[in-house]
Amino acid sequence: MTRETTVLRETAETKIEVAVNLDGTGRVEASTGIGFFDHMLAAFGRHGRFDLAVSVEGDLEVDGHHSVEDTGIVIGQALAQALGDKAGIERFGTAFVPMDEALVMAALDISGRGQLHWEVDVPFGMVGDFDTQLAREFFIALATNAGITLHVRQMAGDNVHHIFEAAFKACGRALRQAVAIDASLCGEVPSTKGTL
After folding, report:
1. Which of 8, 75, 95, 146 sits in a 20 to 30 Å window from 178, CA-based?
2. Tens digits of per-residue pLDDT, 2-18?
3. Measuring CA to CA, which residue among 164, 143, 156, 142 is closest to residue 75?
4. How many C-beta neighbours within 10 Å does residue 129 have?
């Protein structure tokens, strides 16, 4: 069973291509034009242990919003396609990740009902070339398009870089658990409804 796909999405604001292999080794190539965002995507894929290639051409002369949000959309679509009918997956995943003084929890359910519950308290501003408001926008777009119920909760932290890095790593590690194949399911979908 191959759990990999490539998705291309082109609008008047962005052109984004994403390739995902859920059974990869954590190899990430990210080129979004936003250095800090590339760093976060590398943490997400590396700790999720899935291969991720992201190429973004966006209207950065406006700001980073379209590039970041649309990247979330396309990664979410790629995850959904790679998961297929979700047969045999663990479905749920939870991870707590410390990053120095920061501690962030991510818990998710590959439920088919995309939604984000975000309890991360960071000030408005910039981390390098990344607008701090955009982390939430990325995860909203990813969860909605992947069909994932995602909770991200900051337990501790003051440094915005540390908080976001812990969040991206925690989400990657939780996703790694959830997409893992449970051999005891014998290829069945992990739901009493029979579908996700």
Report:
1. 8
2. 899 999 999 999 999 99
3. 142
4. 13
